[in-house]
């Protein structure tokens, strides 16, 4: 996991959900100095004409007007040098809107791209085709459907290759650290219904709630989970935000609002802004957006949050707010550190551009961009456990164990002997194969 640190570009679910603050028309950055290049200037116009004439006279291949046009607009955004800024064709923008709804067709795996252009699996979704086929966290894509990937391909390009229509399969060539040869998978594409918040009661009476992303349905699912564990008599709650790349900021704010009391001032916060959840400021320091507590709801149980260096963007909004309001103990690794937001601007022809527009500031007044949030208790998972995090038994999870200890809760039962645990794992796997996030 550490090898991915600071390698986040626009993160998607490969099936696929745009996340990590790449979201809703509520996010953006310190910005790039506009006006440094004028495509209508005499020099630019003359150079463009020369290039176009060379293409007409010398280029050997066939010309596709639509591809040239889309590449031109894409180039305007890529020229910003902002890895979070994106140009969407009409088809891509429609896809993005579908992703935010929580339903899509794909293989069901969270993926990212590092600064060398390599696309990795962050985590396969539980019950997804990707998990059923055996993909693991840290698996790197080498080829898709026989096409070798290159470092100049964008994450969106690779995602397009992974996606497709139902009743087809994605043939993947994968590099996995420790394997002598590449691994190959044929993974069926199917409709994924993204259940983003799940809960259960642990054997020691602690409620466990895992949140995988922030999309349109997440806040309602999260609130139902909180109410469910409380109604079952939970003595404490552990929130698991590991490998959660983020998503829609208003969803994160609604979730924080459900936990913290209204009209109180966070530690280090501005006394004139009680109940502040989030504030966004542009490159000139102007406040573009702010949100406050308002739902009249609070959770009074002891709480802890599990996090790692792929807890990013909206995850950090949730984690940072509960830290600032003194509502939760933080356990795990330092978070990713994405303290900027993007806004998506639809265009009249159905396309759209996403631009970084602001930094966001947590209730206590801090901005965590490129610094992240430090845990109260630092506990690192070994790589073999990170790879199977979504299937890791709770009683073999050292980060969860530390959270329970920090909350003063009883530890979970020790793992069974090797023979017994093998038998148990087989029965869990057999039962788990009937479960699906598509239901």
Strand order of the largest sheet: 12-13-14-17-18-21
Helix content: 25-40%
Given helix and strand content, the structural type is: alpha+beta
> Which regions are unreliable across 5 or more consecutive residues at pLDDT < 50?
1-34, 419-439
> Can you count the helices?
11
Radius of gyration: 23 Å
End-to-end separation in angstroms reads: 31 Å
Strand content: 15-25%
Number of strands: 21
Sketch the major β-sheet: 6 strands, mixed
Shape: globular
Give a verbal description of the structure.
Helices cover 27% and strands 23% of the residues. The protein has 439 residues and is α+β, with helices and mostly antiparallel strands. Strands 12-13-14-17-18-21 form a six-stranded mixed β-sheet, with helices on both faces. Strand 15 and strand 16 form a beta hairpin. Helix 6 runs parallel beside helix 7 and helix 7 (249-259) packs parallel to helix 8 (314-324). The longest helix has 17 residues, at 42-58. The chain is globular. The relative contact order is 0.16. Residues 1-34 and 419-439 have low confidence and may be disordered.
């Amino acid at each position: 996991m550490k090898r991915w640190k600071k390698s986040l570009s626009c993160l998607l679910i490969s099936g696929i959900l745009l996340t990590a603050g790449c979201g809703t028309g509520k996010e953006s950055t310190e910005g790039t100095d506009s006006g440094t290049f004028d495509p209508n200037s005499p020099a630019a116009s003359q150079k463009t004409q020369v290039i176009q004439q060379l293409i007409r006279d010398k280029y050997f291949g066939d010309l596709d007007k639509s591809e040239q046009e889309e590449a031109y607009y894409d180039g305007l955004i890529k020229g910003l040098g902002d890895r979070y800024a994106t140009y969407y064709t009409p088809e891509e923008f429609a896809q993005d809107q579908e992703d935010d709804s929580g339903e899509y067709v794909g293989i069901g795996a969270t993926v990212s791209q590092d600064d060398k252009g390599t696309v990795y699996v962050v985590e396969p979704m539980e019950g997804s085709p990707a998990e059923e086929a055996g993909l693991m966290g840290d698996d790197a894509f080498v080829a898709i459907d026989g096409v070798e990937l290159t470092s100049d391909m964008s994450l969106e390009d690779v995602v397009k290759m992974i996606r497709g229509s139902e009743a087809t399969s994605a043939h993947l060539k994968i590099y996995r650290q420790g394997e002598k040869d590449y691994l190959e998978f044929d993974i069926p594409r199917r409709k994924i219904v993204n259940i983003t918040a799940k809960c259960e009661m642990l054997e020691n009476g602690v409620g466990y709630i895992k949140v995988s992303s922030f999309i349109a349905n997440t806040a309602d699912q999260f609130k139902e989970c909180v109410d469910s564990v409380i109604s079952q008599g939970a003595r404490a709650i552990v929130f698991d935000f590991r490998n959660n790349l983020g998503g829609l900021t208003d969803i994160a704010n609604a979730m924080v609002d459900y936990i913290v009391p209204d009209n109180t001032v966070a530690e280090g916060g501005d006394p004139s802004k009680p109940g502040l959840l989030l504030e966004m400021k542009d490159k000139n320091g102007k406040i573009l957006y702010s949100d406050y507590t308002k739902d009249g709801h609070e959770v009074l149980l002891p709480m802890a949050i599990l996090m790692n260096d792929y807890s990013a963007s909206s995850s950090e909004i949730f984690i940072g707010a509960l830290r600032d309001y003194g509502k939760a103990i933080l356990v795990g690794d330092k978070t990713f550190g994405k303290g900027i937001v993007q806004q998506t601007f639809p265009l009249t022809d159905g396309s759209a551009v996403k631009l970084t527009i602001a930094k966001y500031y947590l209730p206590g007044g801090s901005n965590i961009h490129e610094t992240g949030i430090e845990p109260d208790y630092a506990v690192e998972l070994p790589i073999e456990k990170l790879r199977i995090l979504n299937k890791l038994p709770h009683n073999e999870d050292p980060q969860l164990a530390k959270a329970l200890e920090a909350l003063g809760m009883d530890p979970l039962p020790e793992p069974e002997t090797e023979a017994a645990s093998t038998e148990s794992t087989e029965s869990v796997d057999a039962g788990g194969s009937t479960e699906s996030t598509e239901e």
